[in-house]
Amino acid sequence: MSLEELDEHERSERVREWVRKNVGSIALGVMAGIGAIYGIEQWGAHRQRSAGLAGDEYRAYAEAVTKKDATAIATLGKTLRDKFPDSPYASMSALNDASEAVAAGKSDDAIASLEWAESHATMPEMKSLAMLRRARLLLAAGKADAALEVAKKIDAEGFKPLAAEVRGDALLALKRQTEALTAYDEALVGLDSGAARRSIVEMKRDDLAGVKAGS
Questions:
Q1: Does residue 16 share a domain with residue 77?
Q2: Which domain range does residue 107 map to?
Q3: 157 DSSP assignment
């Protein structure tokens, strides 16, 4: 795994760990608001069954990913998104589909999957991860303005430094060098001294500062 991917991988693992620990509370969190309509016990049982079914589908989906079974991946991913759109598992399948699409050189398909994850994610961290990846894809496609707008909206605390880096990259592509320097400085403030991306951001920041000093 490259340095560029490490931070994002670690945060993805944290998202998955959070889901494993909290899926019960996710499933029951809306019970109070709609209990008057369906009855607390009935609604709670329904949500627990739904979460359990979604978890079963995701386990099958994960096995298909491990086996690289493209047909099963597509079928199970669609089932998760159609039947359990509010489940964290559905958003995770969309994130993975986006990664598969990027690997296959299908950036438009990847962006579509990330947009789906953004609009359906119930966890701020998962939503921000989808937005971060979409901003990077837009930037790679030469759409710096669009990437900048997406990166500006990333608000999950743990993703703010990475979002600042993407803003810096987008601003640099737009030849807004002073603003890019500010964004890189913001990223460095938020990144731990041992963070894998810190040295990369420092290099970008120092290179840009050197260019400005010499201009």
A1: yes
A2: 1-122
A3: G
Contacts of 143 (CB under 8 A, 6+ apart): none
The CB-based long-range contact list for 185-192 (8 Å cut-off, 24+ gap) reads 186/161, 187/161, 187/162, 188/161, 189/161, 190/160, 190/161, 190/164, 191/161
Considering Cα of 68, then 72, then 75, then 76, what sign does the dihedral take?
A: negative
Instruction: Please say whether the beta carbons of 54 and 89 come within 8 A.
Output: yes
Count of domains observed in the chain: 2
Cα–Cα distance for residue pair 129/156, rounded to 1 Å = 9
Tokens of 180: 């890019």
pTM over 0.90: no
* Residues 3 and 72 occupy one common structural domain: yes
53 lies in some domain: yes
Q: Mean pLDDT in runs of 10 for the chain (215 residues)?
A: 44 54 44 40 42 76 89 91 89 92 93 96 92 96 97 94 96 96 95 89 91 63
Q: Do 89 and 7 sit in the same domain of this protein?
A: yes
